[in-house]
Amino acid sequence: xNRFIVDNCKNxxxxxxxxxxxxxxxxLMLLASNQEWQDRVREDVLQVCKGQSxxxxxxxxxxxxxxxPHLYMPFGVGPRACLGQNLxxxxxxxxxxxxxxxxxxxxSPKYRHSPALRLVIEPxxxxxxxxxxxxxxxxx
Length: 140
Known about the structure:
49% helix; globular; iron ion binding
């Protein structure tokens, strides 16, 4: 019985942390590799949030952040879909909104694309990003 409890705790931890963290890493890598997408999402975030921390109403208004919601389905579908998918998506949207409203990202020359199949498909060597703080004068 103790083994069962420990295994379930590990499952809940990994499912609730690892998958969301890896999804955030992939999002940042894709935005860093495509400046046009990054600028479009940042513009959407800045226009909706207007310098405030994002809330649920703001997240619903962000069109670029949620443009094609059914294109990437990391949580599965149907009766066995992840129970925490709504929380995970809110976490990801808030994280991206906060980061993109304050920083600009580009890929480091050190980055080597090497997806690795572990619990989920994750960057085998991590994602090396160059992070630049946005000046307040550069923001609309």
